[in-house]
Amino acid sequence: MAVGNASFPEMPAIPGVRLGTAMAGIKKPGRRDLVVIEVPEGSRVAGTFTRNAFCAAPVTVAREHLASGEAPRYLVINTGNANAGTGEVGLRDARATCAELGRLAGVAGEAVLPFSTGVIGEPLPMQTLLAGLPAALDALDEGPRAWHLAGEGILTTDTRPKGASVTLALGDETVTINGIAKGSGMIQPNMATMLAFVATDASLDQALLEALLRETVDRSFNCITVDGDTSTNDACMLISTRQGARVASDEAIAVFRNGLQRVMTELAQAIIRDGEGATKFVTLQVKGASTRQEALDVAFTVAHSPLVKTALYASDANWGRILAAVGRAPVADFDVSRVAIDLGGVRLVEAGGRAAGYTEEAGSAVMAREEIPIHIDLGRGEESATVWTTDLSHDYVSINADYRS
Fold this sequence. Notes:
Layout: E1 18-22, E2 34-38, E3 44-49, H1 57-67, E4 74-81, H2 87-105, E5 112-119, H3 126-138, H4 144-153, E6 162-170, E7 173-182, E8 195-200, H5 206-218, E9 224-225, E10 235-240, H6 250-273, E11 281-289, H7 292-303, H8 306-314, H9 319-327, E12 340-343, E13 346-350, E14 353-354, H10 360-367, E15 371-377, E16 383-390, H11 394-401
Parallel strand pairs: 4-5, 8-10, 9-16, 11-15
Antiparallel strand pairs: 1-2, 2-4, 3-10, 6-7, 7-8, 11-16, 12-13, 12-15, 13-14
Helix pairs in contact: 1-2, 2-3, 5-6
């Protein structure tokens, strides 16, 4: 189940970026579950990772390898097993995976960055995983089909692959930004999404690459939630092959930033549209806040309310649940008489209570839609924020109750 009929986009080739996918049988036979991404020599790579204290072994090792001074040449991603909550054994297995891929590809193990997603608390089936690496390397390809297959190869409970691509004009040259992501449940990233991999042929210095990654992640993946759970394995990686137009002038940076934000936002929204059991795509816009964080606090309080989410699923215009969630948000000196709440174009709340012109019929008509906008004006400042979320359905419970079976 997913909201909307999104199709995987055509992905122009990024010279030197090759992707290979294999069916290793890590959790189930006959499905793509192992992906290798090769980046050319001289590339720059930036990453942002989960803040969960029980971060997975591959997160720890990827951080170590990024800090080692060895330029990344390969990324390896497995699904079916998160290699999280596995202690020293998990770290050993993540490092062994990097070492073996490095041996096969002729690079140092520290030039390989590992990523995993799947069930927490079980050791990686190393014999199976390592046996699949040659097939993934043999499948390496630059073409658009390779991006699509890789998008399929990183999925867990997702129902469809997620991709986004833009081509930008920088002076007389063009550059491409391609991205794939996975994520459906255990989504409130607090850094990025479950897994996202974005690459560009544009040439960016390391400091700028890292700054733009943090900035665009903060307004995309850090603004989505399905269930309020931050994963142990979240990672978002941004790769610059440095083979295209240089991004250094203020004008070029502005153009590139806008394009990167578009890719990140499309991927983040695709995760919400494919949220576990989702039947609604909900946009929560909060304005009139004294700070951006205040706006985010209000938006996430509403987005995480089980009562609001179940009303959304039922298409029940029970606007009192929205009002109550706004009222319990951590906002100091909250003057509720200034708050206005709109559901689509229907005013629900003003002057501290039900809007005079509100009708149940108008509210119910908006709640029946697949895509529902909720606008909240706090009337206390100039800052704003937007968060995207889902409803909470019977299928969400079923998917997660049956996850390990």
